[in-house]
């Protein structure tokens, strides 16, 4: 072994040890380019500018992959969401390990919309629902998404479910939209045949859910920006004008969609995206890159780090 090789290895060991120690704590080191100006964003835990990413569903997401992803980009991720009840198929110890990785990086974990199936298969049994909520809490979940795309349930029943979710120590996150039958990758023709609701229906229920103690309202994208021939920007405007910005999160699992929301609501819009898109969204929020319509045009003012001393 040459002296150069021994020296290289000895220099690498402290760096590797430091990175390993930081990774265990979920701590992100400072960028070497922090001296370059970019938008100041709220620090974690944030109350605005939240980014929730999709976990296992379209692609498998393992604990190792998630740990690596969040070690690089965890400063820009606030939550991890399962989809399609994928967590119910995982071995218990593997599910717990995945959730623990998210928590290590200061990210909450959401069930996604699976309560619909629990309600449908149990005929709304309070005992079954309670067991489901207890199990979610024991596994380490933080947020229970309560979707309404496939079920017709009175608003009062949704309110009861929100209250029961809180009693079980979980944060309730109802998902509402204008499209009946949303979810499950339905086609445009299928959704058009199902019809849409008036935006006022969505807004009235969202307000009722917020009054009941909902932590956040997820706005379903189908019928608005997903699986439509043209976007319903009028619905987006009605929602952002009627509901508190810190209480709404838009599904935006398409770069054109989250770019639209950032352009119109600013860098601190709450958005749900696919995990593969976190780099693009982070660059857009920080204002360091973008398309021709956004390059150099996404700005924040008065956030921590840019406030007057």
From TrEMBL:
Q: Name one Pfam family in it.
A: ComA
Source organism's superkingdom?
A: Eukaryota
Family membership, please give it: Belongs to the phosphosulfolactate synthase family.
Q: What is this protein called?
A: 2R-phospho-3-sulfolactate synthase
């Amino acid at each position: 072994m040459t002296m150069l090789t021994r020296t290289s290895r000895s220099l690498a060991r402290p760096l590797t040890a430091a990175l390993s120690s930081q990774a265990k704590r979920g701590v992100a080191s400072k960028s070497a380019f922090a001296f370059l100006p970019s938008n100041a964003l709220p620090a974690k835990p944030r109350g605005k500018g939240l980014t929730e990413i999709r976990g296992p569903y379209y692609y498998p997401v393992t604990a190792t992959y998630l740990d690596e992803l969040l070690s690089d980009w965890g400063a820009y991720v606030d939550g991890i969401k399962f989809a399609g009840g994928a967590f119910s198929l995982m071995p218990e110890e593997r599910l717990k390990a995945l959730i623990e990785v998210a928590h290590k990086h200061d990210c909450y974990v959401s069930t996604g919309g699976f309560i619909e199936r629990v309600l449908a298969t149990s005929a709304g049994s309070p005992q079954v629902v309670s067991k489901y909520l207890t199990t979610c809490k024991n596994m380490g979940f933080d947020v229970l998404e309560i979707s309404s795309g496939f079920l017709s349930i009175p608003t009062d029943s949704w309110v009861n479910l929100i209250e029961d979710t809180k009693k079980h120590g979980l944060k309730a996150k109802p998902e509402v939209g204008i499209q009946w039958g949303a979810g499950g990758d339905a086609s445009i023709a299928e959704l058009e045949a199902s019809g849409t609701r008036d935006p006022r229906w969505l807004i009235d229920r969202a307000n009722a859910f917020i009054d009941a103690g909902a932590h956040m309202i997820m706005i379903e994208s189908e019928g608005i920006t997903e699986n439509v021939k043209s976007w319903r920007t009028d619905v987006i405007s009605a929602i952002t004008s009627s509901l508190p910005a810190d209480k709404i999160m838009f599904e935006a699992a398409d770069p054109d969609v989250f770019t639209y929301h950032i352009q119109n609501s600013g860098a601190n819009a709450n958005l749900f995206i696919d995990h593969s898109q976190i780099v693009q969204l982070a660059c857009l929020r920080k204002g360091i890159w973008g398309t021709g319509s956004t390059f150099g045009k996404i700005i924040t003012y008065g956030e921590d780090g840019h406030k007057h001393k």
